[in-house]
Here is the input.
Amino acid sequence: MNREELLAAIDKKYEAMGQNPDVHLSGLLHAEPMKYWDFIQLDALLGLQTQRTQLPDEMVFIMYHQINELLFKMILWEMQQISHTQDIAPTKFEMHLMRISRYFDMLSSSFDIMGAGMEVKQYMKFRDTLTPASGFQSVQYRKIEIASTELINLIDYRFRKTINRETPYEHAFDNMYWQAAGNDPKTGKKNMLIKNFEKQYKKELIQWMKEYNEFNVWTKFKTLPEEYQKDVSLINAMRHYDHTVNISWVMHHYDAAAKYLDSGKVNVEATGGSDWHKYMHPRYQRRVFFPDLWSEQELEDWGKGNLNGYQKITE
Here is the structure.
């Protein structure tokens, strides 16, 4: 596009908005040139790390989790492109899914930072200052799960037969699998972990559940034309995402936690007070986003064996 074409396009753009193009060009004349540190808000970003102790490795823990949350935001951005694109083509669907999977692949491999990046003695000291906070309380991760699949696939495995699409959203919320980490198994009462989480996010998450009830990735896939649903590349992208999130990423997280929480102590609770072994391990909760894309044997073996233990679908 030459200069005349560029100026004509600018005129067209701002006139369509009811704006005077010359005013905007004048503003551009006087504007400061963009700088990298301003574009990414570097000073603000680097000012977000506040330690609660003097233990150096706490800073590693803080920054690592902030990086996770930034990646979660990137994932949600990609999911929005899938869910809110009408008549989405399988190539576009697959493209966004693979972007999401790469983000989760990055999250999975990054647990070496946690596993080898903190001294156990330091962690076991500063973790007490975090109580009753927990990574469980990541609202973005809960949104990712809800935007991925139908709610029934996120309901605690023990209660799925009692819930259907007519179940009120609040009741479904109260029976999500993560509630197992927030309820005292002896009394049935909610602990401070879940109370704080619900006070902050329950209304927001129920609204999110309503929004993605018909637009989650799994429902979106099932509304595609039949020939699209048979697209092998798209099916493999769906399976890769499901396995990456619900087995690979979870188990890398589980193994990193085990290094610290199982380091010479018996039955150490997570900071929120949960039995983290049963809450996290996929063989207990059996979280599967796209169950119809797996064989009966694959579902039976879910969470068992090695992290790469699934086969791609072939033509």
About this structure: The mean pLDDT is 88. Residues 232-261 form the longest helix (30 residues).
